[in-house]
Design goal:
nine-stranded mixed beta sheet; Endo/exonu/phosph_ase_sf
């Protein structure tokens, strides 16, 4: 991950660092100073007078990049240790001409024989660390002018510059450019002190001799077999073939080299690749070059690397480096460490698990395997073995795909004008997509994560080493039935805009245009009409394609808080839906009378219902809000009674309750405390879990009252419960007798922290679940990159907005199908084929394997057996089906008609429905399968035990001919189970 400080706001940093007076220097974009227009820090050197140093003392170099003279009176140079603690400081005075340097001489070292330099200000008390630290320029009021952090420093602008050594400094790559990103603006290299008079000190000179190839230490020795180099902080010389090069703005400013040798995975115990830091040296090499490198080797954020101070082309090429085919992703850090810095070609299946950071840092989270990482509390109850197992699995199979760059695409101006890596409108990077590695990648460890780096920076699709599968679903799956219910969180659909509220701020695009609201009292959505239309277009497209009979909405505006009718926004959405559909397809359920303002659950966002009158009827006057104190920090549950369109009064009426529980964000006290960091991911439920549980309990009571009130046991609870499937708020409802129709994957409603899980659910009472014909989680939103959202319009130079359904929100909609038809078929029945047991001995197989089919929507059925050798045998080509059922027995018989044991192995019995209706053919029918096993038994005794092979020398001993036939047992031929028709029409008593 990236350094946590860049995500902190000014308030958090002030509380942590207020004693130093540096609270104003928070690196978070909202708190840091704007890029300097005059005085900047241009270079810092901390190895002065140390062993291996270049000069006899440290220095801090400043530069006036403006075209006018500036005053230094009151300017303070403040030095901080790597952990952010304030150290020594010095106050400057005088003036600095335009485009001139100013050199502050810092503490001298013990090696006084090293060259010295001229300086403009003497500050011998400032002792700068040789590898890491921070320097700030403050004006006379302690407001920040500029800040530089390097190495593992905790104070920096956007990201720290590289670590230095006793022989290297950190200096601006272009002294006239300040982007407020230390990693981008500064490079590590040879110290070059420059003072006001232009004297850059005694020339330390070039190395007296060229690099001596006889002093080469192999890369594998520098890497060692542990997690850290055996040569920390030492000057070394090594050689290798260049495998990756990163130059230009925002890049890693260095290159990888690797030993040219074949790797035997069985004996491989140390990496033979390493990163070489140094932008100027990276510009001198190309992939495939054989080079000698000298510099200091050390650990930088957990990665072994060399800070180069000399580079030469090798006289004789070392050979070629081919990507090592890595058969699977190593599950432990120790196993990964032996490949750090090496060129790899990952094999096996990798799946996109996270694309949120793609919009910010150019990263794509991957999972080794065929599915994304799953939230532990989606897989198991918090603290359960299942939750711990999922958390452990996530650690084992997760890895990042990076872009070879370090800048932040959300805050860095140059980055915004460089196309996001990997993602275009034609090449989506969707969660759940398979990743095909076309070219080699280098295994890197940075910011606390293992990552695959491309061999060159990826800009757009340029230099991309991968191809992503397109797994988008243009429409939801067919859930069957006569009508359907869906839930859809519409991402702050507000008709009240930022322009409607005085003082409302905005998030801006890369050109400074307002896009979405920020820090406003009421509006939470689009800032102006132009962006509202972009947002609405996507939502309308998605809902019309969802095409559910009833859609429960969350996160739609409650305009009554600003004096409008409570239904104004939902009415506006319905009008837009109908206009796009070209017909009066949609209507909304009107709000009930609300006795007082400020009721529990009153919020700027609300829940709502829209529905299609051609498919369902809303029973007038049944809309009801739950007024309960437990929802003082949530949204009041909203209920309504519906029936199939055209149904007789009281027939098949069902209740739907839409919910939006308290969010997981923040922390309360007691059972509302957020203890995720303390307890770990297997227990992670976020904040306010206690309140969500109490909201679930109140909801269950509300549902029970509605059942009695409307004389129906058909109840659907839906919406955004802000709890994953195995967390207490959901299980509280399940324990009350409800069925979660949308749990278990493989698709989920939400993506967070690189993992997927469902916060949005459709739960049904036991009676209602009987009528469900199918379910689907339509993965159009949470699975798509946030860069496609209306709220990120023109954040990047690449055009990524499209007026389609994808990323219309941040939650995936869920839909379930229902059938109340009186067609003689038990509601919700799926065809099922079962055998009496899953395993039979050979002796038991003499009596035959009994099977039964139920729920088949056909008149006849094709029954086949796939034997242990993979041969397919037709048991019955047109068996009769009665009331959806049939049964039979399969035995092996000799030509003489005697039953014989079935051979040992695994068998698949399958049944294919025929003539489902006049239009359906055999090719359209889906077979239903049952698997059983035949195991050997000891009936023959000792060495005479029959293994069922019936081959070779076994044939004479058994006395059976090899030409045996598969026959149905005559006495138990295919027959209907005859259970009788089940009436599904439901009427009130």
């Amino acid at each position: 991950m990236h350094n946590i400080l860049q995500k902190l706001g000014a308030v958090t940093l002030a509380s942590a660092l207020g004693v130093t007076g540096l609270a104003v220097l928070a690196p978070a974009p909202a708190a840091q100073a704007a890029p300097s227009e005059d005085l900047v820090i241009s270079e810092v050197y901390g190895g002065g007078g140390n062993s291996g140093g270049v000069y006899d003392r440290d220095f801090i170099e400043l530069y006036n990049l403006s075209d006018a003279e500036i005053s230094l009176d009151g300017v303070t140079v403040q030095y901080y240790s790597a952990n952010g603690n304030a150290q020594q400081s010095t106050e400057l005075s005088g003036t600095l001409p335009a485009e001139s340097y100013y050199l502050v001489a810092a503490a001298p070292g013990n090696n006084t024989d090293l060259p010295s330099f001229e300086f403009d200000h003497d500050a011998p008390s400032i002792a700068i660390a040789g590898t890491q630290g921070s320097v700030a320029l403050l004006d006379g009021t302690d407001e920040p002018i500029d800040l530089l952090g390097w190495g593992s420093a905790q104070l920096f602008e956007e990201a720290p510059a590289g670590a230095t050594s006793n022989s290297t400094s950190v200096a601006r790559a272009d002294v006239t450019v300040d982007t407020d990103n230390n990693a981008q603006d500064f490079v590590v290299g040879e110290p070059t002190p420059q003072s006001l008079d232009g004297d850059d000190g005694e020339d330390p000179g070039e190395p007296e001799e060229p690099i001596d190839p006889d002093e080469v230490t192999p890369i594998r020795e520098l890497q060692g077999t542990g997690s850290e180099t055996p040569y920390p902080g030492q000057q070394v010389t090594t050689e290798g073939v260049v495998t990756g090069v990163y130059t230009g703005q925002g890049s890693k400013n260095g290159f990888y080299i690797q030993e040219a040798e074949e790797v035997d995975l069985a004996e491989h115990d140390a990496s033979i690749g390493i990163f070489v830091s140094g932008a100027s040296y990276a510009e001198e090499v190309e992939i495939g070059d054989s080079v000698l490198v000298s510099g200091v080797v050390d650990e930088n954020f957990g990665t072994t690397e060399i800070t180069a101070d000399a580079l030469e082309a090798r006289d004789e090429p070392l050979g070629a480096v081919e990507p090592l085919e890595l058969p699977e992703w190593p599950t432990t850090d120790e196993e990964r460490e032996v490949f750090e810095g090496m060129l790899l070609l990952p094999q096996g299946e990798y799946t996109v698990s996270d694309n949120y950071s793609l919009n910010q840092f150019g990263e794509v989270g991957l999972a080794f395997g065929d599915s994304p990482l799953v939230q532990p509390t989606e897989a198991g109850v918090p603290g359960s073995d299942e939750a711990y197992a999922q958390a452990a699995l996530n650690e084992e199979i997760g890895v990042l795909l990076d872009d070879g760059q370090t800048w932040n695409y959300m805050t860095n101006g140059a980055a915004k004008n460089s196309p996001l890596p990997y993602l275009t409108l034609d090449t989506p990077v969707s969660i759940g997509a398979n990743v095909d590695f076309l070219d080699g990648v280098v295994l890197d460890y940075d910011f606390g994560s293992w990552r695959f780096q491309p061999t060159e920076p990826v800009r757009g699709l340029e230099n991309s080493p991968v191809e992503f599968e397109d797994v988008r679903e243009a429409t939801p799956a067919d859930v069957g039935g006569d009508l359907s219910i869906a839930t859809f969180n519409v991402l702050n659909y507000f008709t009240t805009l930022g322009t409607d509220e005085e003082g409302c701020q905005a998030y801006e695009d890369r050109e400074g245009n307002p896009i979405a609201t920020d820090f406003c009292d009421h509006p939470r959505g689009a800032y102006n009409q132009e962006n509202f239309e972009r947002q609405e277009t996507k939502i309308v497209e998605a809902i019309n394609l969802l095409d559910a009979s009833v859609v429960a909405l969350e996160e739609i505006e409650d305009p009554s808080n600003v004096g409008q009718d409570r239904d104004h926004s939902v009415d506006t959405l319905v009008q837009a839906l109908n206009a796009a559909a070209g017909e009066e397809r949609w209507a909304f359920v009107p709000s009930p009378d609300i006795p007082v303002d400020g009721y529990p659950g009153d919020d700027v966002i609300r829940t709502a219902f829209i529905y299609q009158p051609a498919e369902v009827a809303y029973i007038e006057g049944t809309a009801e809000l739950l007024f309960d104190d437990n929802f003082s920090n949530g949204r009041a549950p909203f209920a309504a009674l519906f029936a199939p369109a055209g149904a007789e009064e009281g027939e098949n009426e069902f209740v739907v309750i839409v919910n939006h529980f308290k969010s997981k964000g923040g922390s309360g006290s007691g059972d509302n405390e957020n203890r995720d960091d303390e307890l770990g991911p297997a227990w992670a439920v976020g904040g306010w879990n206690g309140d969500r549980v109490r909201q679930a309990e109140a909801l269950v009571d509300f549902a029970e009252a509605l059942e009695q009130q409307h004389d129906t046991d058909l109840v659907f609870i839906t919406g955004d419960l802000n709890a994953y499937a195995q967390e207490d708020p959901v299980t509280t409802i399940l324990d009350a007798g409800y069925v979660n129709l949308t749990e278990g994957g493989p698709d989920y409603s939400y993506a967070f922290g690189g993992m997927v899980g469902s916060l949005d659910h459709v739960l049904a009472s036991d009676a209602a679940a009987e009528f469900v014909t199918g379910t689907d989680m339509w993965t159009i939103n949470a699975n798509e990159a946030i860069a496609l959202e209306y709220s990120r319009f023109n954040y990047n130079v690449a055009e990524l907005y499209a007026p389609d359904q994808f990323r219309s929100s941040d939650h995936n909609p869920a839909i379930v199908g229902l059938s109340f038809s009186d067609d003689g078929e038990e509601p919700g029945d799926e065809p099922e084929l079962t055998t009496e047991r899953e395993s039979y001995s050979q002796t038991e197989s003499l009596e035959g394997v009994a099977y039964e089919g139920t729920g088949f929507p056909s008149e006849t059925v094709l029954v086949e057996l796939v034997d242990a050798e993979g041969n397919v045998h037709v048991i019955e080509d047109e068996g009769e089906v009665a009331d959806g059922g049939f049964a039979g027995l399969v035995v092996y018989q000799s030509d003489a008609g005697e039953n014989i044991p079935m051979p040992v192995g695994t068998y698949t019995l399958r049944a294919t429905p025929l003539n489902v209706d006049d239009a359906q053919t055999l090719a359209d029918s889906e077979p239903v399968e049952a698997v059983f096993e035949i195991v050997a038994d000891g009936s023959g005794g000792g060495d005479d035990t029959d293994d069922g092979s019936f081959g070779g020398d076994d044939l004479p001993r058994t006395g059976f001919d090899s030409n045996f036939a598969l026959l149905l047992f005559i006495g138990l031929a295919l027959m209907g189970v005859g259970a009788g028709a089940y009436a599904v029409s439901r009427r009130k008593a």
